[in-house]
Amino acid sequence: MRAGGGIGGRRLLPGFGLSLGITLLYVSVIIVLPVAALLFKSASLGWDDIWRIVSSRRSLAAYGVTLGSAFIATIFNGLLGLLLAWVLVRYRFAGRRLLDALVDLPFALPTAVAGLTLVTLFSSVGWYGQVLEPLGITVNYTQAGIIIAMMFTSIPFVVRTVQPVLEDLDVDVEEAARALGATSWQVFSRVAWPAILPAFITGCVLSFARSIGEFGAVVFIAGNLPGLTEIVSLLIYIRLDEYNYPAAATLASSLLLFAFLTLLATNLLQSWQLRYVKRS
Amino acid sequence: MSNAAERRSRHHRRSGAERLLIGLALALAAAILVVPLLLIFAFALREGIGAYLDQILQPDTVHAIWLTVLAALVVVPINIGFGVAAAWLVSRFRFPGRQLLLTLIDIPFSVSPIVAGVAYLFLYGAQGLFGPLLEAAGIRLMFTVAAIFLVSLFVTAPFVARELIPLMQQQGTDDEEAALSLGASGWKMFWHVTLPNIRWALIYGAILCNARVMGEFGAVSVVSGAIRGKTNTLPLQISLLFNDFNVAGAFAAASTLAFIAVLTLIAKAALEAHGWRKAGAR
Q1: Closest CB from A88, A111, A256 relative to B111
Q2: Which of A85, A173, B14, B59 is the most buried (most CB within 10 A)?
Q3: A54 with A21, same domain?
Q4: CATH code, domain with A174
């Protein structure tokens, strides 16, 4: 690829110094500096303190609730995302464009609005709650509420990662398989599925990461009871309110570390995807 | 892609599986996406339009609307400027550390908003790295409107850059080099060649950035102090009204943000229909 001058070569296009200056200054001040300040704060604690904070019963319970709920929400979103992506790409039907646009609603709708809406929907007199309550299902102020809030806010990820790959997939290969006598299921599992797998996993990782970090929607619908329905983000918030800064910094750093792992995982998955595209 | 699907749907009558999958997708989308959206407006308008307007015009809610709009007016232009500069740098030049820079720009996308708020607290707050310095200078950032702007800048920093970078990489530099060789100055080239080429992507990124600024909750709730009538943005106001058991007020406030979300979706769909995004994906 031709770029405006290679390393060491003469730069053909103007603005290198200016754009470099603006970008470095902005990234340093707005992104890197606060993140560094947070890591610095928790690094100033000893390992013993960090371990004590992270392994306290309340922290462990919060990690368990957060990871477990995010996991279940991600499984559901993986299935729903696959279904929506498949239907949007492969079929033509009335309302398809509308459905395509609606998929992004959870990204466009503020999380506080989502939380308010979900808690109202599932209250004992709510549109869904009054149906579920007689069946003995309580969503509000239980872990089910956390799962539903996490699920709602991360619906688009799998759809939007799988959709473009599915669009680029050559349908002729599938038709050939079908002509050779493969059933629809065989066509999907042997031809389409391997091709969309990297994108599917990427979408699931993004969805999981978003669920781990989700705060706005969850606090409305979770009971926020320590040990039972308290997520890590909320525990950080509570520790701040108690002026327990070391605990807040350490818990926040653990989420930050998790975010870095997610970034690494999605980058690796992306190169896997690229390899697949090159091979086929 | 669509050709093949259209070809197939013309040649085959819908199979049972196809009908089942479409039906399932539409039913789930209705239950999970449409019903919640309708509920917001139904609850906001439940007691009539007069009561709705009364709720919206509560001074604290009006102030929250104003502060939310102000945050968008401050943050979106700055992040457009950053996005253009970063995209120009990354798509037009090769330099050591380029990949690292791209990763750093992505950080706000993967970090929990609560973590973003806490990070700013430990930078500018009384307990923070610069806390003593700021205190000595008599400057207070945390729990002010400035803090809301700062965390919003962080949370939405990648939006415009992330839309522009793939597009500008794909467009290449031929047009710009042609303009320069014809004697255009750098700025002239930027205004007359680069900007028209990227304008739809720029608007797209700005719309997403705007939606996120107006809706940000976690990060803002950590650094704003949520002082009524002072540092309460709309999402915080919604939470406050809900905790006061003022459901009608909460839904009235929420309806304004839901309305903006619907506008965002419409603008997004219109821009995608415009076609530039498909080109970017290919």
Answers
A1: A256
A2: A85
A3: no
A4: 1.10.3720.10
A149 and A82 share one domain: yes
Exposure letters B17-52 (e unless 16+ CB within 10 A, then b): ebeebbeebbeebeebbeebbebbbebbeeeeeeeb
Asked whether residue A173 falls in the same domain as residue A263, the answer is yes
- Which sequence spans correspond to the domains of chain B? 1-44, 49-281
Q: What pTM was estimated for this model as a whole?
A: 0.91
Query: Is B190 close to A212, i.e. CB distance below 8 A?
Result: no
Q: Which residue of A has its CA nearest to B38?
A: A117
Give the residue among B224, B97, B74 at the shortest CA–CA distance from B156. B74
Superfamily of domain B49-281: MetI-like (1.10.3720.10)
For residues A214 and B110, is the Cβ–Cβ distance under 8 A?
no
Q: Are residues A202 and A182 in the same domain?
A: yes
Give the closest residue to A147 by CA, choosing from B32, B227, B230, B210: B32
Expressed as residue numbers, the domain containing A107 is 46-279
Query: CA-CA distance, A7 to B93, in Å (whole number)?
Result: 8
Q: Which of B115, B153, B186 shows the shortest C-beta gap to A15?
A: B186
**Of A37, A104, A118, which is closest to B129 when you measure between CB atoms?**
A37
Same domain, residue pair A86 and A157: yes
Show the beta-strand stretches assigned E in B112-231.
none
| Burial class of residue B136 in the structure, from the number of CB atoms within 10 Å of its CB (0-12 exposed, 13-18 middle, 19+ buried) | exposed
Dist CA B219 CA A259 (whole Å): 16
- Condensed to tens digits (0 to 9), the pLDDT of residues B118-159 reads 999 999 998 888 989 998 999 888 899 999 999 999 999 999
- Is A55 found in the same domain as A158? yes
pLDDT tens over chain A, length 280 residues: 344 444 444 457 899 999 999 999 999 999 999 999 999 999 999 899 999 999 999 999 999 999 999 999 999 999 999 999 999 999 999 999 999 999 999 999 999 999 999 999 999 999 999 999 999 999 999 999 999 999 999 999 999 999 999 998 888 888 888 889 888 888 888 888 988 999 999 999 999 999 999 999 999 999 888 989 999 999 999 999 899 999 999 999 999 999 999 888 888 888 887 776 666 5
Q: Which amino acid is at B125?
A: G
Asked if B118's CB is within 8 angstroms of A20's CB, the reply is no
| Number of domains forming the structure of chain A | 2
- 3-state SS, residue B243: helix
User: For chain A, what is the total number of helices (H) and then of strands (E)?
Assistant: 16, 0
Q: Does residue A196 share a domain with residue A101?
A: yes
Partner-chain contact A267 B103, CB within 8 Å: yes
Shared domain check, A184 and A101: yes
